Amino acid sequence: MVATILCFSGVALFCGCGHVALTGTLTILENHFSKVTSDHAMLTDVIQLMQYVIYGIASFFFLYGIILLAEGFYTTSAVKELHSEFKTTICGRCISGMFVFLTYILGIAWLGVFGFSAVPVFLFYNMWSTCTAMRSPVANLTNVDTICVDVRQYGIIPWNAIPGKACGSTLGDICNTSEFYLSYHLYIIACAGAGATVIALLIYMMATTYNFAVLKFKSREDCCTKF
Fold first, then answer.
1. Exposure string (b/e) for 95-110, b if CB count within 10 Å is 16 or more?
2. What are the boundaries of each domain within the chain?
3. CA distance 5 to 16
4. Cβ neighbours of residue 76 under 8 Å, at least 6 residues apart?
5. What is the H or E stretch that residue 109 is in?
6. Which of 43, 71, 29 is CA-nearest to residue 166?
7. 47 has a pLDDT exceeding 70
8. C-beta atoms surrounding 72 within 10 Å
9. Kind and range of the H or E element at 98?
10. Is the pLDDT of residue 227 over 50?
């Protein structure tokens, strides 16, 4: 139950916040870094594809969480009846083993998703820290226009994109926009949601592995008692 609630919460945060943050990121790029549509056409397609993938992830984990919850209740009740007349079947043990394997695979995949979701947080943090340094009176900068953020170096847009970078007061204006502020914090929440999902899958793995091991042990015990 704890893993299911944590999984639903993490996936909801990742999918919801990630979807809105991607839209805000595309708006920032179109308005300030790549004003020619053809320069970021591929990035637009990639973002739209990622948003469709987010829809699929949300739907899949909603169903998978319910199935795992039901399977957990079933195997837990089976484990509790070790000394009763409850008999496990080969089909039931195979299904439990399949869920163990699938949950391990999904856990590894979500570790990759968690790492990938930290990339935009890092990029936005670099831009935000640059803007903070410009506004800081301690910095004592004589020429603010020499401070720039070039998003082309991250491979987000091609090198021929115009203008491709923002400097000085223009960069400060970008950091003050609602799109930047909202996208930055939504990426942080989405990354936290991915981390929560990883923890939920780890709990699932521990529970399903334990229940499967006990069911397998009980099946051997049942076979021994027949002879």
1. ebeebbeebbebbeeb
2. 1-225
3. 16
4. 211
5. helix 90-135
6. 29
7. yes
8. 19
9. helix 90-135
10. no
